[in-house]
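User: Study the fold:
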Amino acid sequence: MNLSPDQTIMFEIWGIPINATIFYTWVVMAVLTLVSMLITRNLRPDVPPNRWRTMLEVVLQGIQGQIQEIAPGPSRHLLYFSGTLFLYVAMSNLLLVVPGFEPPTSSLSTTTALALSVVIAVPLFGIFSRGLGGYLKTYLEPSFIMLPFNIIAEFTRAISLAMRLYGNIMSGAVIGVILLSVVPFFFPVVMDLLGLLTGMIQAYIFAILATVYISAATAPQKSLQPERDTP
């Protein structure tokens, strides 16, 4: 039994081995792209929305509502980033019900790549919102003594994001395989259902944490001057 899809080689392209993590990542990307194209192909004001378009709008409005609660104000770019993270992780975990599919999120390589994208996005959003000087000052808050601790916090965020998602998805997949060999009918179905629930929760947590980190980097800097009492 392979603990990670990285160990499964699906095929080779020009001598380059393509493992299960890469292959199923392409599958998830293809499914998301195909579904988006099919739903939005008649996206015009004069065409009444069908059930699929309605479902997509509900999902997007739900994501946007969650982002607005964390980061009030203009958040379109944050919607693109956090929404894409959520849809990718959620679709990866939802496809777990397809026989033979191994979720890319059960690979530490995938979760590390997702966490690194968040670590890179945080300073980019922060610099775009506050400017380079304003963002770098956040590392000195509340005092310059906190500089090394704030830098360490950036790395621990990446490690916690990657390990949390990888540990939850990988453990669920491994337990499902073990139960499949012991009781081949009942328990795997239960574990698949629990895996779907856990996968959706983890997708939500990952996207929310990314939004919180970016929101903290882009929040307006508090004034150090004491507020005057209004007459």
